[in-house]
Design goal:
By secondary structure, the chain is an alpha/beta fold. The protein has a single domain, classed as NAD(P)-binding Rossmann-like Domain (Rossmann fold), CATH 3.40.50. The protein is built from nine helices and seven strands. It has a seven-stranded parallel beta sheet, with helices on both faces. Helix 1 packs parallel to helix 2. The longest helix is centred in the middle third of the chain and has 28 residues. The N and C termini lie far apart (48 Å). It binds nicotinamide-adenine-dinucleotide (NAD).
């Protein structure tokens, strides 16, 4: 079974491509000569991202779509198929966060996070996989989960649940497609310095204080990796056919701690959360 060996003229679709990890992933593929299809709910960001992608001398299409909307995703797949045929690489990256205790996470927030972070990935795989399977030659699906998909995360129960689900979904799909020409990768980034950590009333619970948010922002700013690191790791995973990508601060540490001892992992995470003033 061959994996993709060169990016030139490949068709790569990235969701959540207007910002952060999605944007840097698009740029990393463009640098290798791939053509890009950028998808995001934020149309302004899309136009700016497409402009930077095109400076690498590759083709770039943009589509405004909500990954959580199955009909919008089916329409997108139809348009993409008519424009460029079957995708070579699909990167399901779009995602949102919420910080707050479990008690302060309303059911609408649970729905929002599961709809975007989990069902967004489900929708992406559902609408693009059939044509990718039919087409001849190696193809690749990359789903962006998180280190929060491998271990518990204090004050982020909905986010952690959505990301654990993405890991479970992706690994199950990888098993199902083993032996086919479609490779599957789950990406678990640690702390990455992107706008996702910027607080707004839509993504923060009531009792989280300004001071806690400032400390979190400072933590992302000083300890977080640049999203470019994740984009490059995703390109590398496609070219070297890696099924699990642990990238950025703490991702590998958390993964290994969990394998060694669940109670040790909990002790370390609780101590860290106390130090951060989270609990
Ligand atoms: N930043 C981190 O520390 C980190 C760590 C692990 C995993 N991740 C994951 O990486 C992915 C990208 O996050 P980021 O940090 O680059 O965040 P970001 O906020 O910079 O980018 C997310 C992008 O997704 C888009 N988006 C949001 N909802 C959408 C929807 N319903 N449909 C289409 N597009 C939508 C946004 O407009 C934005 O452009 C997310 O899945 C996130 O959970 C981030």
């Amino acid at each position: 079974m061959m994996s993709i060996t060169k990016l030139k003229n490949k068709q790569v679709l990235v969701t959540g491509a207007s910002s952060g990890i999605g944007y840097e992933t698009a740029i990393a593929f463009a640098r290798g000569g791939a053509n890009l299809i950028l998808v995001d709910i934020n149309a302004e960001g899309l136009a700016a991202a497409a402009e930077s992608v095109r400076t690498h001398g590759v083709e770039c299409l943009t589509f405004r779509a909500d990954v959580a909307d199955p009909q919008a995703m089916a329409d997108l797949a139809q348009e993409v198929s008519e424009s460029v045929g079957a995708l070579d690489v699909l990167v399901n990256n779009a995602g949102v966060g919420f910080i707050g205790t479990f008690i302060e996470t309303p059911v609408e927030i649970w729905r929002r996070l599961l709809n975007i972070n989990l069902m967004g990935v489900v929708n992406g795989c559902s609408v693009f996989l059939p044509k990718m399977r039919e087409a001849a030659g190696p193809r690749h699906i990359v789903n962006v989960a998180s280190a929060a998909g491998l271990a518990p995360t204090c004050n982020m129960s909905a986010y952690a649940a959505s990301k654990h689900a993405v890991v479970g979904l992706t690994d199950s799909l990888a098993m199902e497609l083993a032996g086919s020409e479609v490779r599957v990768t789950v990406v678990c980034p640690g702390i990455i310095n992107t706008p996702i950590a910027h607080a707004s009333s839509a993504n923060v619970g009531k009792s989280i204080t300004r001071e806690q948010l400032d400390r979190l922002a400072e933590f992302y700013r000083t300890k977080g990796a640049h999203p470019r690191v994740v984009g490059e790791a995703i390109v590398d995973a496609v070219l070297s056919d890696r099924g699990l990508v642990l990238v950025g601060p703490f991702a590998r540490l958390i993964y290994n701690l969990r394998r060694v001892s669940r109670s040790l992992l909990f002790r370390v995470l609780i101590a860290d959360s106390r130090k951060m003033g989270w609990i």
